[in-house]
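Shipment paperwork, digital attachment
Item: protein structure file
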Amino acid sequence: MTYRLPKTSGLTVLFSLSFMLSFAQSNYFKWSWGLGGGANYSKTDVVEGNWGYTAKGEISYHFTPFITGGLEAQYGMVQGGDIVTDPHNRQFINNYTSITANLKLHLGEFIPYERKPFLEAIKGIYAGIGIGAINNNITDIVRYKPSCSAFDPGYGPFPGEDKGVNLIVPINLGFNYYLNDGYGYVPYVINFNAQSNFTFGEGLDGYNDPSTKFKNYDPDTFNLYSVGGKYFFGNIKRIVSSSKHYSFS
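Attachment content:
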């Protein structure tokens, strides 16, 4: 017994140390807000889409460092068609606003990236989905074909509303580049995001065409390609995890 006690104690100490070292500790902020902007491209009932612009702001709650839920507000201009080149001489401009609730899952939630440079580099890739409302404000639209139209000049009015609210579902795919402050915290992020916005209703382009005259089966959409920045704030959450996922050191 005299020799077994030190041996047992030594094994216990080694086991405890290895157990502790197998856990990774992470400190992260529970909230973040961000601003961004970029170009959007429309796909609606008019034949040709066109480029517009969007500015956005968001606030997010971090359930973990890599699972977030938040609200995003947008203001921008979506346009499409061309009175000269469109087969029906149609075009529109929509100065819209929207607000959506979003859930995003980052790759860092699922991969053991610590001390693995490649996995560390891609941990900020994420996908997400949301739901909300878009307020359409059509400021320019062709309701009657011009007299110079090659086919059926003066036809109209094309049915539809200049103002209205529709359901919108955004689908996000993006990448966060984390900026470490050297003390184990990540206060800033550079964000790159691609977002497909599916609207349900006929308000995005202002045209509510009868199916007997126009093919009108798909939801009106616009894709947004944006760059932005985020700032983390609020209470700091400390996690000790055996998965090593949540280390920012």
